[in-house]
Amino acid sequence: MRTIAVLAFDTVVGFELAMPGQIFGSARSADGEALYRVRICAPSPDIQVNAAGGPSHRMLAPFGLDGLDGAGTVIVPAHETDDIPPVILDALRRKHSDGARVASICTGAEVLAAAGLLDDRPAATHWRHADRIARRFPRVRFDASVLYVDDGRVLTGAGVSAGIDLCLHLIRRDHGAAVAAEVARRIVMAPERGGGQAQFIPWDNDPGDDRQLADTMTWARARLHAPLTLDELAAHARVSVRTLIRRFREQTSQTPLQWLIGQRVQRARELLETTNLDMEDIARRCGFGVATALRHQFRRRLATTPTAYRQAFRSEHPA
Amino acid sequence: MRTIAVLAFDTVVGFELAMPGQIFGSARSADGEALYRVRICAPSPDIQVNAAGGPSHRMLAPFGLDGLDGAGTVIVPAHETDDIPPVILDALRRKHSDGARVASICTGAEVLAAAGLLDDRPAATHWRHADRIARRFPRVRFDASVLYVDDGRVLTGAGVSAGIDLCLHLIRRDHGAAVAAEVARRIVMAPERGGGQAQFIPWDNDPGDDRQLADTMTWARARLHAPLTLDELAAHARVSVRTLIRRFREQTSQTPLQWLIGQRVQRARELLETTNLDMEDIARRCGFGVATALRHQFRRRLATTPTAYRQAFRSEHPA
Questions:
Q1: 20 to 30 A Cα–Cα from A211, which one of A115, B163, B182, B220?
Q2: Which among B21, B52, B62 has CB closest to A25?
């Protein structure tokens, strides 16, 4: 039987705190034997547990940090504080150097990053916090578009429920797809969800502040049905094409045309969510020309199809 | 701001206990104001919280049962005990007769049923426990195939994660699809999942014990590729068609031909999960003849398509 330690300190998010116990605790061998024991370990016996939006209740932690001994995997859920106890960071570094797997759920990635365990690695975290955490830890290669990242002995899950996908992935790694699929059924979740976290990021989640090119971007967004060229964008911004590209890179980390495709995809998402327009019509209104091109960019950028996206996200009564 | 009370007593399942706080706690108005406050209420201050497979930790409950006052909605998560405190049942009956909404997650439906609140109503619960709970409470019309049932002021969710769908549904009812979709994005879940719970019930989840017709069923299962008739089944069982129908009804609550279609669908699920065979081939091998018929029965019985089912449940390396 494998031992999983869940590391908790004050402000731990309760839903994610309980997630490993629910998921690993449901894993059974063909003979019906439990495959994991899950221990909640904390640096003090009385821990504040949070819900979204603030404190929820207090927990009496069943294990101290000595409960980490013998655990082959340590999982860190999200915590709603910047004040990470140094004993937590020490414990994580020690477990990692002893050969244990370490994994995070949601903004638990910030704790792994603070311990230095994500330096020069790819990592996932909640899309709402990815930019902030990436600025704080520039050596970490955050990817907000995926549900989780498996980098061998260091794994990171995206926001909240993506922790379920991460736990199922670990069970699949340890015991194969059939055991993981059985767990998925017991918890009434798909064993492997299609698409990544990208499809959950709002189409209007644009940093948007303080941009020299704001006017040109607004102008372009009003013309997404049209095939806009670099020359047209540069002319509107009253700069050379070379300067336009440099400014776009500085402000969006993208070329103007990459940014434009992103805007077209965002407009398509908006139309898929809020209208009954057919795919060809949406493709035309967003400047993709034909539905095939829309589908191609959708798959590249969101790892899903326009049809699946519409089914998942449309409002009940589209206009 | 609406108040949601989560009712907990010893053995409450931690993942579901924390679910409402996470989901309702994430709901925001257009101005960014919190739309719900969530209170955990318990009959005693120190509560045992379970994970799948047994006790996890103890919780200091922030509210007693007086915390129910002012709550317009009461949610009961799963508990791993048959020993429901009478004060819990009284509190639920009182809240219901006072006009509050009551809702359950997973086997929390058993608590609502014990309080008499599900009598003569449709209800959802975890597929693994639906038969047992239905036998205990014969007046409840359990449907294991759906993710949740909204019966006005009484709502019930199916197993574990279906509680997420139920909470999102309540937010949609209270504040509309856009608010619920934003919450879904924050928790990285689809706002409305396709299919019901039916797709998560294993194809070999057959009670199977103590059946007079066991031999004939085994014989039929070995011939699912063929179009079996009532006469052939009766001949194998050495009974009249009328007796065959009666015995199938007694033992499966279905007619022989309904049972047979169920077996064909189960075989199709097995082949979709474990092989790369195309739809026409699978339809043929399961006795549906053509893929259109397979799709029709899939949609009727599982509320999803064979293609979506295969994507969700196939093993990583099908034979």
A1: B182
A2: B52
| A14·B25 Cβ contact <8 A | no
Mean pLDDT (chain A) is 89
- Predicted local confidence at residue A163, as pLDDT: 96
A 40-79: CB under 8 A from B = 40, 46, 49, 51-54, 56-62
Q: How far apart are CA B224 and CA A86, in angstroms?
A: 63
φ/ψ bin of B208: left (φ > 0), alpha (ψ from -120 to 50), beta (otherwise)? left
Residue of A14, A25, A311 lying closest to B18 (CB–CB): A14
Give yes or no for a contact between B217 and B178, defined as CB atoms under 8 angstroms apart: no
Domain with CATH 3.40.50.880 in chain B: 2-193
For residue A203, list chain B residues with Cβ-Cβ distance below 8 A. Answer: none
- Cβ within 8 Å, pair B187-A159: yes
The hierarchical CATH code for the domain B2-193 is 3.40.50.880
ipTM of predicted assembly, 2 dp: 0.73
> Are the Cβ atoms of A177 and B58 closer than 8 angstroms?
no
How far does chain A reach from its first CA to its final CA, in angstroms? 54
Cα atoms in the Cβ-side hemisphere of radius 13 Å centred on B124: 28
Q: CB distance from A32 to chain B under 8 Å? A: no
Q: Hey, what CATH topology would domain B214-313 get? A: Arc Repressor Mutant, subunit A (1.10.10)
Cβ of B60 within 8 Å of Cβ of A56? The answer is: no
State which residue of chain A sits closest to B164, comparing Cα positions: A161
B185 chain-A contacts, CB cut-off 8 A: 200-202
Model confidence at B208, pLDDT cuts 50, 70, 90, reads: very low
pLDDT in tens, A74-84: 999 999 998 99
Q: Which residues of A touch B25 (CB under 8 A)?
A: 51-54
B159 touches A: beta carbon within 8 Å: yes
Report pLDDT digits (tens) over A281-315.
Answer: 999 999 998 999 999 998 888 878 899 888 877 76
d(CA A75, CA A103): 5
B136 close contact with A: CB closer than 8 A: no
- Give the end-to-end CA distance of chain B in Å, rounded to a whole number: 54
**Chain B contacts of A299, Cβ < 8 Å?**
none
Give the residue range(s) of CATH 3.40.50.880 domains in chain A. Answer: 2-198
Q: Which residue has the tokens 């899309």?
A: A127
CB B110 within 8 Å of CB B18: no
Measured CA to CA, the distance from residue A257 to residue A183 in angstroms comes to: 44
Of B54, B164, B178, the CB nearest to A315: B178
Could you tell me if A125 lies within 8 Å of chain B, comparing CB atoms? no
Minimum mean pLDDT range among A127-136, B141-150, B168-177, B209-218: B209-218
- In this prediction, residue A69 has a pLDDT band, given cuts at 50, 70 and 90, of very high
Calculate ∠ Cα A105-A187-A96, nearest 5°.
30
Q: Which CATH class is domain A2-198?
A: alpha beta
User: Residues spanned by CATH 1.10.10.60 within chain A?
Assistant: 214-313
